[in-house]
Amino acid sequence: MTIARRSLLATPALLLAGRASAQAAWPDRPLRFIVPFPPGSTPDTTGRAVAAHLSRAFGQPCVVENRAGAGGNIGTGLVAAATDGHVVGLTINGPLSTAKALYPDLPYDPARDIAVASLLVRAAQILVVHPDVPARDLAGFVAHARANPGKLSFGSVGAGSGGHLAMADLMARAGLDMVHVPYRGFPQATLDLVAGRIEAMIVASAAILPQVREARVRALAVTAERRIPQAPEVPTLAEAGFPDAASYAWNALIAPASMPADRIARLAEEAARALAEPQVRAVLDAGGFEVVASGPAEATRFVAAETARWSGLIARLGIKAEA
């Protein structure tokens, strides 16, 4: 066989090797890791744990950018619109599963523009009230709210967020009328609850357990299917008379839909390794997070199911973004 013939035969193999090398080299520059909530928020805690591991695993800095606003839609939209292959992010319930139902002019389509790499963690939510609210249990709170229609307010991190919709669901089931006060992030909402500027909130357990333990707020019920080990004294909604109302706050690892599937899979694998690190797991467990670390297919199915459930509630109750 001539040298020329051998060279022609070798060319496809060299091209394949070159492509594999290029894929293996990704990322070849720093990654931007968008967290659509402020520093200190529960998504920020999870996001920074994952980003730190990605930096080590990829050998490139993975720089967290907190881009808060619009209940997480601003930062999530930045991920959806990215085109350079080096932007990933973390988001929560609202921007992925309910934003489209609430914002007809949303600049991104979650199902079309975002790839869900992994459902990272989920957390039970807790219904908490300011200590001045004269209620020691959920029944007492329902009675108090019914006696004061339109006078009590509750906080959330925005219309369509997990806490907002869980409270809207409870209000519909119990026949309550309360005022919704949206915030840019959990820290400010928590500060206002502790200060008594709002009376109630359904919030991820990780964001409020310290205040519960310090008796700065009172916990009335958890939204999980079972009592949580971090607050075993707090009954579930089902135990308090509201079956089939379980819900969770969750964090998902996302990327632009244009990102190749092999990179999405690798992100999911490395995120699972990050969440399995003992020091990370200890922080998450203490905060009330349950590690899920699913793969892309499972995460995508989960988000689709959440979208169907909560979009249906939004339509049924006529919930508006400005509510």
Short description:
This protein is α/β, with parallel strands linked by helices.
Task: Report on the architecture of this protein.
With 323 residues, this protein is an alpha/beta fold. It has 2 domains: 30-122 and 249-317, D-Maltodextrin-Binding Protein, domain 2 (3-Layer(aba) Sandwich), CATH 3.40.190.150; 124-222, 3-Layer(aba) Sandwich (D-Maltodextrin-Binding Protein, domain 2). Helices cover 47% and strands 19% of the residues. It has 13 helices and 10 strands. It has helices spanning 3-24, 42-58, 73-81, 93-97, 99-102, 110-113, 138-147, 162-174, 186-195, 205-213, 261-276, 278-287, 296-317, and strands spanning 31-35, 62-66, 87-92, 114-129, 153-156, 179-182, 200-204, 218-222, 248-256, 289-291. Strands 1, 2, 3, 4, 5, 6, 7, 8, 9 and 10 form a 10-stranded mixed sheet that branches. Helix 2 packs across helix 11 (261-276) and helix 8 crosses helix 13. The longest helix is centred in the N-terminal third of the chain and has 22 residues, at 3-24. The relative contact order is 0.18. Residues 16-23 have low confidence and may be disordered.
Reported for the largest beta sheet, the result is: 10 strands, mixed
Count the helices. How many? 13
The proportion of strand residues reads: 15-25%
What's the number of structural domains? 2
Architecture of the largest domain in CATH?
Answer: 3-Layer(aba) Sandwich
**Under the CATH scheme, which class of the largest domain?**
Alpha Beta
Summarize the helix and strand pattern as letters: HEHEHEHHHEHEHEHEHEEHHEH
* Count of extended strands: 10
Structural class of the helix and strand makeup? alpha/beta
Average pLDDT taken over every residue: 91
* C-alpha-based Rg, rounded: 22 Å
- How far the N terminus sits from the C terminus, by CA atoms, comes to 77 Å
